[in-house]
Amino acid sequence: MPNSFLLISHLPIIPPTHTTPRHVSPRMSLNNNNHNQTPKPPNPSSLLTSLPKLLWGPSLPPGLLISTVRTAWHSTWQLMMSQLAPSDPSGSYSRPTSKFRYVATTQFSRQNLHLYVGLPCPWAHRTLIVRNLKGLEETIPVSIASPGQDGSWEFKSSSIPGLDKDILIPGKDSANGCKNLKEVYGLRRGGYNGRTTVPMLWDVQNKEVVCNESYDIIELFNSGLNGLASNPGLDLSPLELKGRIEEWNRVIYPNVNNGVYRCGFAQSQGAYDTAVSELFSTLDMLDDHLGRSRYLCGGTLTLADICLFTTLIRFDLVYNVLFKCTKKKLLEYSNLHAYMRDLYQIPKVAATCNFTAIMDGYYKTLFPLNPGSIQPVMPSCCEHEALSRPHNRESLSLTESKYVQVQ
């Protein structure tokens, strides 16, 4: 979620104008017997109690108050959203590109890699899943950051529980001992003042960012580090399927992975309408396709499935409510929901899914979308027991299905 959690910590606070309300007599503010006494500072509790009475008094009609607050809040919201989620002129979310890309000529120490992630982030979640499936847990340690109140990624002891001892939880920076991810990026040669995003693969020996683009990292984990992996025989991007994987990614990334963000971060009705239409038409197509095929590319699990899964596992938990993806719940898609459960039940995948951390990271941090920070109860369909129900998709892997292409 490349800086999906970058919130506004530096907005100017406009002080109130110190004018006497029209319905209060000026003489009430004078005390001729106490000219030489130092005035006591106002009691914040008293001010908060008095303010509603003042605003709703006869000097300011309720209708005017509502329209004034609405205008002020909308302007403030637009300013915050422009920082949280930059948009194009139509109001459509425009995701910034990753700064550090991995290419074949990238130099790094393969024996000294460290992965930085945040559990709420679906892009970071991809790297955790491939790391586990390839058996890189011992050779590529991970530090898990939490979104702070100002939106930055912080390292701290976590109060967020795991479902069991194997579930990943946030913690300290075990590679550099930094307080936040910004400090880690700043350790690289020449420093760095840009967007500090997860996931990020770090070269501990050379103190350098290897890559902060999620798809580059999972491709590297899949085929570039087999000498370090305990499961080198697993290939999530076999040569004969690369074309189909890329074709699926061209559909899924803009319409689903980024599509939910285009819905949630839309800054105009038109931008939202376009995004939500493309999202659900793609989900309809995927549900139809997965009724005939166990995985996207037939009977073989691929990187395309991993990329789709990390959005689906968050859909009813977060995106349906907070990002206004409300046309249908994922639970209403029988094939898609069973497909998601199928992937969740692959050994080592469930351990990467900390639903409490995911909900905290969205509902308590994305202030412009949820100003009250009130977190809804977890949907019962997203609990571990529900996701562990039989999916009955094994028979589909016996028959290779025809690939469906979106026009």
Helix content: 25-40%
β-strand percent reads: 5-15%
Instruction: Give the radius of gyration.
Output: 25 Å
Helix-strand string: HHEHEEHEEHHHHHHHH
**Please, what is the average pLDDT?**
85
Pfam families: GST_C_2, GST_N_2
Organism: Quercus rubra
GO cellular component, one term: cytoplasm
GO molecular function: glutathione transferase activity
Q: Tags for this entry?
A:
407 residues; mainly alpha; five-stranded mixed sheet; disordered N terminus; disordered C terminus
Kindly describe this structure.
Residues 238-380 form the GST C-terminal domain. This is GST C-terminal domain-containing protein. GO terms for molecular function: glutathione transferase activity. Residues 28-37 have a biased composition (Polar residues). Residues 18-47 are annotated as: Disordered. With 407 residues, the chain is mainly α. Helix content is 37%, strand content 5%. It is built from twelve helices and five strands. The protein has helices at residues 44-55, 62-84, 122-134, 181-186, 214-224, 242-257, 259-264, 269-289, 303-322, 334-344, 355-363, 384-387, and strands at residues 113-118, 142-147, 153-154, 200-203, 208-211. Strands 3-2-1-4-5 form a five-stranded mixed β-sheet. A hairpin with a 5-residue loop joins β2 and β3. The longest helix is centred in the first third of the chain and has 23 residues, at 62-84. Mean pLDDT is 85; it is low at 1-35 and 400-407.
